[in-house]
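Inputs:
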Amino acid sequence: MAVVGLERKVKVAEVALRCLVCGLAALAAALVGTGSQTRTFFSLEKKARFTDMKALVFLVAAHAAAAGNSLLQLARCAAAAAMAARGSGNGGGSSGREAAVAWSVFSCDQAVAYVLMAVTAAALQSSVLGKRGQPQLQWMPICGLYGAFCRRVGEGLASAVAAGLASVLLAAVSAFNLFRLYGGRGKRSSGAGNGATTW
Amino acid sequence: MAVVGLERKVKVAEVALRCLVCGLAALAAALVGTGSQTRTFFSLEKKARFTDMKALVFLVAAHAAAAGNSLLQLARCAAAAAMAARGSGNGGGSSGREAAVAWSVFSCDQAVAYVLMAVTAAALQSSVLGKRGQPQLQWMPICGLYGAFCRRVGEGLASAVAAGLASVLLAAVSAFNLFRLYGGRGKRSSGAGNGATTW
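Outputs:
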């Protein structure tokens, strides 16, 4: 098997990062999504749930979607590896199809990375407001009332931040997988060969 | 001049996107940073400024930094173009230095894109809270009181979203510029040539 060392390293990193994103995103969605706390104020029962804050709803939805997407991509990686192991004699398939797959994986991973970063930032912002309030606007902190719920959301957010960082690395890996197809070592001499790639 | 068409297109897109990011980020920082509104409630004077919300402070700081960074990068592009025009005979410099520059530009652009997306999401979240409040938490909306200030922040946020999208495209362009250096057309036959690149 004439597999280039760099290529193998990148494949291993990709699978590891996808597992990491899948696990951490699922954990974040589960921690935030299942947390709730009920308290009684003067015989009035009030319940804190993640649906009370739009940002947490987005967080749960985005991380659940990211976890599902990672699972699908892992299945794709496994299928590609199985195909490569079985039919390694036929040269790895057409490069046009390879580029199309790389483009779709790249777009997907970029979208996941940016969306996870954005929803995590928005949820962190909401949580800081919940923890500290905003005295200038007469918004009171609520974590004094719902301590257990706030701790649970905090754990979920830590997991969400880790999932976001992993997805950023993953986006870089899939950018590498895509753009090296447009590789240009010696592009000044044999650059005309790139004319076949469509832009 | 044997410049490849794809390479020239990418260069033009890079410069255009950098100009766009610079202008839009500076506009966003200026709109949000200079907005303020003073109102009098029962002889008590109150002033709304962006410093009342942490998320807006981050937004202004990040967009000002992104605009400055874009200016520096534009200067780098101009210097590289001038060098290429003057000394085009010497083959474009060593490829090791080219890779180092591409790595630093790539890291910078990725960081800018993620930071702009994150601070914009956080500021949007804060602004939605400011506009609608959060009745479950007894947080009252404030845009009824400070309408002009809220409109100004809204314009700034629109500009910030546009700057964020431009910086995302720019990050993809600089990923292209970096990773095609590790290009692998025909990597299965002549892949050993990639061994010289350090990972």
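Remarks. Residues 95-132 of chain B form the longest helix (38 residues). The radius of gyration of chain B is 22 Å.
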